[in-house]
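Take the subject:
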Amino acid sequence: MNEDHSNGPHVLVIGGGVGGLCLAQGLRKSGIRVDVYERDRSARFRGQGWRISLKEEGTSALRSCLPEDLFELCVATAILPATRMAFLDHLLNPKFEKPVPLLPHDVFFGVNRLTLREILLSGLDDVRHFGKTFVRYDHAGDGRVRAHFADGTVATGDLLVGADGTNSAVRRQLLPAAEVDDIGNFVYGRTPITPGMLDWLPDVLVDSFNRLIAPGDAAMSVVTCRTREPVPEAVARLAPGARLTDMPGYLAWMVSSDERTGWAAGPSLTAERFRQSDGETLHRLARETVADFHPLARRILDEADVPATFPVGLRSARPVSPWPTTDVTLLGDAVHTMSPGRGEGANTTLRHAELLRQALVGVAARGVPLLDAVGHYEAEMLHHGFQMVSASLGNPLMPRPSVTSSPRPGPRGAG
């Protein structure tokens, strides 16, 4: 049952990704007024990625913020867990292999990013606003904060939360000196699991965390993504009102280039051009990079859904000092974006969404001054968030910053 804190602050969330939507669900569950503004035109407008791994702090936040039926839907539509970890050379010769222990099924699990986003959007139809590109904020005469959007509209609230990702427009205004390093890039893609595929796919690449590494460090990883329960059946059983896209089984793959020679396109392929490349171009780059890999590894790319290939630019935020607390704050990648080396990014963001929800419940239920609550949130968020940034950079599989810093990324708006 939702708590009634309708006299609490009105929260404006800029960005409808995992963190912003988890916060919105938690505030809605707690009876606190919230509106979410997302630059995309719909939940499916852009590539969401293929898989994220949820750990205890992430699932704990989801369990706290979501209605029970939606959390159970997350668990039911989770991806079957990996059974082993394997490192191989590019010809599939094993270098290291160990089993992955069985963990609690509702605490540690992988999810399809689009599925999770659609679950997080469920029940928010009246408070989420698509097609809203954030431009700037200012402060109203009555002490509240106003968000201005590219379409000329304005929203007014008591607290504005920038949850608009690595290229955050909110952060650019709040912390103009903040810097983000480009530390490399990957090509991500998807190959549907078709009848007979699992017969020719090497066993070591099925239901495993794996990495194939060639001389020079060009690398490829393959993740088997099959849901525990078919998505339509899980929706019908648990949350008939949810609108989820069916997710038949697929292989999610990642290719990174040789550290010495880079991508086949050469030095002209800057980080910005890489991020703007289309699926066909990126698939070609990936295919050329694995040209000397085992034929069965190459076959995975040959049978891929080519238009679904997309770029992932690896970014890592430099630590920022605490700033004077105001009615504008930040959440997730908007402040402490990190490399995926330890799989901590989404889990950290979810943890902080729950942390901010708890702080705002204190404002609504116990009369804690808003700026005091936000200040306590920011102190813990910054301390923990940049611990995770450092730990992710320390992962031996992740590149070190080369570094190219991006203090003022080009505008991308909300989301």
Summary: DSSP finds 13 helices and 18 strands in the chain.
